[in-house]
């Protein structure tokens, strides 16, 4: 290891190999919640099976800090980490530093959700393998819908009407803090996720399509943003403009919202012993933009990639294929409620017994919408920032949708001129 990276290695917990085995590799695993321990169990099982050893590198919980560390190591061609755990939107940004896994994945690649493979493939190369998935969900209060004889909303119009009706009736009955719908409205990546769901559900595209063409400036996208802006201050608190996942979950879990948009992680917490709404929560796909719209939860999740600078790429690739296999994804689903990326597992009896809600998520992941990270490459962060800033202006009534999207189109074309990759 070079002197230049000695301090970095110490920072992330690396040490000189001491194993007697011929091959020792390292893998980065998140330490958020149960992730580290569940990862360690899988890595240890692979080591026992192959006779190789693998060292787990604990990386920062902050996605921003983790990406910065990865970029620093990879840009210098450092081989400190053989296998990288990456977010689904990092594949385009980091693709030039990863091995092409296409040949090794033959025979199993088609087992995964197409959207997960789409976000793992850049310029025809499979630069990562899907590990676990996330997608946006609609959470709702079963008790309140039943009380007011309202079905689970199928369209955003249905949700708006139901939220308004239940909110008004409950407030009149004394629940003055109740809101109809909470979500993530702060100007950050989470707003890109939410707004992409609104736009895609109205058939307004995905900001930039898979060919790299800018598509956001269209009437359906404008209509989606107009609908969302109408929620703020009526069925949604104005404070939502500074909400992330946890702020919206806090309001919903305290019993102060009828509906919530969030990731699957919120389910277990809403059902926890300290939750004010335990056993009162249901989940469903996010609503369609209208009768001709679609259900569109934005795709999230994690991938595993092999570094181009790995000195043991063959063993590293074998570890990736093991950890992303159906058997290992089943174990992770049962042990840690991690959503598989393989559709058939959502019908597995042992998985659905351990996680009763998981069987209902198959449709959500099948219809999940990928952010345009693969198409925009290194410029994805710039594209996302321009998008969520524009949406935030519309939501806060500082701009009309049509004019805002026209300016966004101009700004994205300026970024594109420098090249997406």
UniProtKB/TrEMBL annotation:
<dbReference type="Pfam" id="PF01547">
    <property type="entry name" value="SBP_bac_1"/>
</dbReference>
<dbReference type="GO" id="GO:1901982">
    <property type="term" value="F:maltose binding"/>
</dbReference>
<keyword id="KW-0574">Periplasm</keyword>
<keyword id="KW-0813">Transport</keyword>
<comment type="similarity">
    <text>Belongs to the bacterial solute-binding protein 1 family.</text>
</comment>
<dbReference type="GO" id="GO:0042956">
    <property type="term" value="P:maltodextrin transmembrane transport"/>
</dbReference>
<dbReference type="GO" id="GO:0015768">
    <property type="term" value="P:maltose transport"/>
</dbReference>
<dbReference type="GO" id="GO:0055052">
    <property type="term" value="C:ATP-binding cassette (ABC) transporter complex, substrate-binding subunit-containing"/>
</dbReference>
<dbReference type="InterPro" id="IPR006059">
    <property type="entry name" value="SBP"/>
</dbReference>
<protein>
    <submittedName>
        <fullName>ABC transporter substrate-binding protein</fullName>
    </submittedName>
</protein>
<keyword id="KW-0732">Signal</keyword>
<feature type="signal peptide">
    <location>
        <begin position="1"/>
        <end position="22"/>
    </location>
</feature>
């Amino acid at each position: 290891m070079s002197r230049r990276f000695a301090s970095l290695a110490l920072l992330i917990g690396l040490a000189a190999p001491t194993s007697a085995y011929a091959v020792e590799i390292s893998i980065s695993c998140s330490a958020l919640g149960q992730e580290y321990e569940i990862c360690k169990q899988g890595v240890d099982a692979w080591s026992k099976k192959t006779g190789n050893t693998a060292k787990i590198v604990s990386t920062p919980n902050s996605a921003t800090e983790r990406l910065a560390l990865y970029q620093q190591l990879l840009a210098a061609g450092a081989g400190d980490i053989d296998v990288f755990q990456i977010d689904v939107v990092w594949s385009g940004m980091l693709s030039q530093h990863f091995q092409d896994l296409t040949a090794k994945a033959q025979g199993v690649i088609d087992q995964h959700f197409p959207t997960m493979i789409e976000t793992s493939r850049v310029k025809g190369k499979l630069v990562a393998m899907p590990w676990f998935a996330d997608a946006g969900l609609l959470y709702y209060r079963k008790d309140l819908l039943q009380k007011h004889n309202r079905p689970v909303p199928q369209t955003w119009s249905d949700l708006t009407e139901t939220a308004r009706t239940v909110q008004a009736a409950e407030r009149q009955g004394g629940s003055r803090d109740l809101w109809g719908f909470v979500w993530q409205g702060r100007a950050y990546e989470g707003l890109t996720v939410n707004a992409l769901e609104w736009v895609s559900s109205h058939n307004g595209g995905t900001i930039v399509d898979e060919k790299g063409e800018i598509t956001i400036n269209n009437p359906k996208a404008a209509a989606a943003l107009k609908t969302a802006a109408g929620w703020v201050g009526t069925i949604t608190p104005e404070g939502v403009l500074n909400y992330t996942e946890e702020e919206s979950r806090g309001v919903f879990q305290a019993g102060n919202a009828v509906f919530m948009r969030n990731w699957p992680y919120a389910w277990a917490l809403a059902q926890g012993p300290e939750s004010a709404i335990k056993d009162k929560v249901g989940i469903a796909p996010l609503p369609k933009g209208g009768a001709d719209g679609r259900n569109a939860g934005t795709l999230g999740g994690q991938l595993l990639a092999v570094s181009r600078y790995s000195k043991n790429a063959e063993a590293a690739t074998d570890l990736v294929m093991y950890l992303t296999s159906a058997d290992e994804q089943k174990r992770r689903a049962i042990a840690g409620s991690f959503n598989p990326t393989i559709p058939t597992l959502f019908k597995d009896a042992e998985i659905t017994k351990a996680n009763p809600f998981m069987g209902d998520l198959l449709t959500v992941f099948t219809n999940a919408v990928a952010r345009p990270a693969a198409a925009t490459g290194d410029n994805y962060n710039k594209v996302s920032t321009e998008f969520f800033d524009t949406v935030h202006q519309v939501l806060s009534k500082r701009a009309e949708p049509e004019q805002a999207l026209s300016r966004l189109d101009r700004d994205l074309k300026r970024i594109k001129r420098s090249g997406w990759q």
